[in-house]
Amino acid sequence: MFDHSPLMGYVQQDLLGGDAVFPTSFQLSLAIKEALNRVHVAEVARLLEAEPLVAAKLVHMANCYTFNPLGRTVYGVEQAVKRVGFNVARSVAIAIAVDQIKLMPSMAPYADLAHASWRRSVHVAALLRELARLEATVPPDEAMLCGLVSELGVFYLLLRAASVPAYAHDRERLHDLLRQHSPAVCSPLLASLGVPQDIVVALDTEPAAGDSMAWQLQRLLAESRRLQALPDPAPVNEPRAEWLGDIRLEVDELRRAL
Predict the structure, then answer these.
(1) Do residues 117 and 154 lie in contact, with contact meaning Cβ atoms separated by under 8 Å?
(2) CA triplet 44, 255, 149: central angle to 5 degrees?
(3) SS3 call for 162
(4) In this predicted model, what pLDDT tens digit does every residue of 29-85 receive, in sequence order?
(5) What angle do CA 147, 193, 155 make, to 5 degrees?
(6) 125-153, pLDDT tens digit by residue?
């Protein structure tokens, strides 16, 4: 057992003080949240246009088959926001921010962990969206956002660990840090980023109230994580094997888009 209290003391100060610092696209996610409170599509579009990478990725997402089954191409950011919705716009901003994190020089010692965590998150997000469409218990795009941010605590701890050389040279210590603390860090971090409250509660370490939206998200997230961990193709005795085959194209397209 390792003592992570020095690092976690700084992390708790960040979270309690609202000083968690992430790349610019996370700050964009906060700005989008404020614009959403006023329900101004044009304002969200203006914010997104100021970040060319986010804008380009959002327009690409809006034109993929998942959101454009009729093949009607959109070229402008405002049109893209109207087509995909606010939660997808926020998801794209977060996806770009995670890419920025992975490219930071200080993250080089943890590149394998960061890539693996992000691949899992994207796969889980795509499965969550499809499960939500199947069951119609939660909005699919909110479910997708929940999956996408479900391991954000890992990225934040990796960023903070980058300033402590002991973690770069001791994988056992680093894995212990992530195993012990990333789930508890995730929920308050998401709250500081203005992620919808149902998602914040769903990703808390405590069970959500029964039959609430957060509880439904927790349930679907657990099932998506189980499905994500299955071999491909799924075993023949897997109850959802046929369904997984049916949604393969949609899941693969979303994974590529994110």
Answers:
(1) yes
(2) 60
(3) coil
(4) 555 655 555 556 777 777 777 777 788 888 988 898 888 888 899 999 889 888 888
(5) 60
(6) 999 999 999 998 999 988 998 998 899 88
Residue bearing tokens 């690092």? 7
CA angle 105, 186, 231 (to 5 degrees): 80
Domain boundaries defined on the chain:
21-92, 104-258
How many distinct helices (H) and strands (E) make up the chain? 15, 0
Preceding omega of 23 cis (within 30 degrees of 0): no
pTM, rounded to two decimals: 0.86
Beta strands in the chain (DSSP E): none
Q: Which residues, including other chains, have CB under 8 Å from residue 144's CB and lie 6 or more apart?
A: 87, 88, 91, 125, 126, 128, 129, 132, 254
SS3 string, 65-101, reads CCCCCCCCCCCCHHHHHHHHCHHHHHHHHHHHHHHHH
In terms of pLDDT, which residue wins out, 91 or 123? 123
What residues have CB less than 8 Å from 81, skipping those under 6 apart?
Answer: 41, 44, 45, 48, 58, 89
One-letter amino acid of 105:
P
